[in-house]
C-alpha cells in the first residue's frame, strides 16, 4: 500500500515524499482513512510507528481544504477577539 492510495491531497503527498516516506505504517494505513472520513479514532501502537502522522496528515488536509474564513463569515459563522484582561 502507498500513501497515494489513502486519499491524501497531492500537496500532502508531495510533502510526505520530500521527507523520505514511501509507505504508510500499519497504524497509518488504518488511521488516515478513518480520520479523513471524520470518524472517531482510538489507536494504540509502539513508539515510532507513525501514530502522530496517522492523525496529523488528515487534519492538515482538512485545514487546507476547508472553506476560507471570509466565506464562513458570510454564512453566519462569527469569531470574536477579546482583549486580554
UniProtKB/TrEMBL annotation:
Keywords: ATP-binding, Helicase, Hydrolase, Nucleotide-binding. Its EC number is 3.6.4.13. A motif (Q motif) lies at residues 1-29. It holds the Pfam family DEAD. Residues 1-29 form the DEAD-box RNA helicase Q domain. Residues 66-85 are annotated as: Disordered. It comes from the Bacteria. The keyword Membrane does not apply. Transmembrane segments: none annotated. PROSITE patterns: Q_MOTIF (PS51195). GO terms for cellular component: cytosol. The keyword Glycoprotein does not apply. GO terms for molecular function: ATP binding; hydrolase activity; nucleic acid binding; RNA helicase activity. InterPro entries: DEAD/DEAH_box_helicase_dom, DEAD_box_RNA_helicase, P-loop_NTPase, RNA_helicase_DEAD_Q_motif. This is ATP-dependent RNA helicase RhlE. It comes from Escherichia coli.
Amino acid at each position: 500500500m502507498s500513501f497515494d492510495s489513502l486519499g491524501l491531497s497531492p500537496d500532502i503527498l508531495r510533502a510526505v515524499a520530500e521527507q523520505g516516506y514511501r509507505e504508510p505504517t500499519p497504524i497509518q494505513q488504518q488511521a488516515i482513512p478513518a480520520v479523513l472520513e471524520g470518524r472517531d479514532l482510538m489507536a494504540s501502537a509502539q513508539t515510532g510507528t507513525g501514530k502522530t502522522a496517522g492523525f496529523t496528515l488528515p487534519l492538515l488536509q482538512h485545514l487546507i481544504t476547508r472553506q476560507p474564513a471570509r466565506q464562513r463569515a458570510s454564512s453566519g459563522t462569527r469569531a470574536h477577539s477579546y482583549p486580554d484582561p
